[in-house]
Amino acid sequence: MSTLEQPEPTPGPLPPRTLTEVGERTPARRPDMGLRAGELLAGRYRIVRFVAGGGMGEVYEAEDALLREPVAVKLLRAELVKKPGAQERFADEIRLARRVTHPNVCRVFDVGIDGERVFFTMELHDGITLAEHLGATGPLDPPNATPLVRQLLLALGAAHAADVVHADLKPSNVLLTGKGHERVVITDFGLAVPCCSELGCGCDMPHLLGTPAYMAPEQVAGGLAGESTDMFALGVILFEMTTGLRPYRGPDAFAVARARLSGAAPSPRALRPELPESWDRVIRACLAREPAARPQSTADVACALGIA
């Protein structure tokens, strides 16, 4: 029997909870090290406008003065890049991320340093995040979710084929572009915030590799992130897409992260009884506590959902 055919016990319904309880995006803000429109970064990138702020830093639209093409610039938070070894780690991860070339993956171009500022450049895409889309539409029925899920699986599969792990997959890292927001583009591959234990800095500032609401049990426990880690995050996203809720809850981010270390994976059919059993089975398989019990590839997920 395959991992997709081994259901875990089904718990009772989860208490109602809205998507806005744990925000997907930090409200637009301009930190002390923020960039201004018209400013020239590293002598090459002319800032056009502030786009959004998030856990890792701020995103700006810019013009590459050398190539005369628009790009997105992500300025990393100062407290992250000042940690010992952080700049080297980000540079290494960006070198890996550059290997992924796929229509559903945001292409990373380069990493740069301007004084104390560390940034990287990537493709510029207009659109909304999956988090914003779900906030506006609520849960999606399988026919409406399928085109997006198919592209998610293709993007994740392409990254894994290049030995690149996302490690921080979440709806706010999934862009929906095009006139009808029908094209999926995943951003920030391999660029999860490094934890203190990984950097060996010994500081008191807690950092986790990933976002608590989407972290796999092995990430919570301080283990290494791998392809199965992305599969767990995919399961959280699919649960959220089909029910409008996240599978784990708690009074704070760390309680949410710890909640997946005990108990069986919740069943989305407990919230959406009309959800096909195949979707319920796949989602719970992705949410398995043990990495080996999760689907071994995105192709397995696509086949089990009948969307290959």
CATH superfamily of the largest domain: Transferase(Phosphotransferase) domain 1
Q: Report the CATH architecture of the largest domain.
A: Orthogonal Bundle
Mean pLDDT: 83
What's the order of the H and E elements?
Answer: EEEEHHEEEHHEEHHHHHH
User: Helix count, per DSSP?
Assistant: 10
> Uncertain segments of ≥5 residues (pLDDT<50)?
6-32, 193-208
Structural class: alpha+beta
How widely separated are the two ends? 20 Å
Strand content: 15-25%
> How many structural domains in the coordinates?
2
Report the radius of gyration as a whole number of Å.
Answer: 19 Å
Q: How much helix, percentage-wise, in residues?
A: 25-40%
> How would you characterize the largest beta sheet?
6 strands, antiparallel
Short synopsis of the structure:
With 308 residues, the chain is an alpha+beta fold. It is built from 10 helices and 9 strands.
Description:
By secondary structure, the chain is α+β, with helices and mostly antiparallel strands. It folds into two domains: 3-24 and 126-305, Transferase(Phosphotransferase) domain 1 (Transferase(Phosphotransferase), domain 1), CATH 1.10.510.10; 40-122, Phosphorylase Kinase, domain 1 (2-Layer Sandwich), CATH 3.30.200. It has ten helices and nine strands. Strand 2 and strand 3 form a beta hairpin.
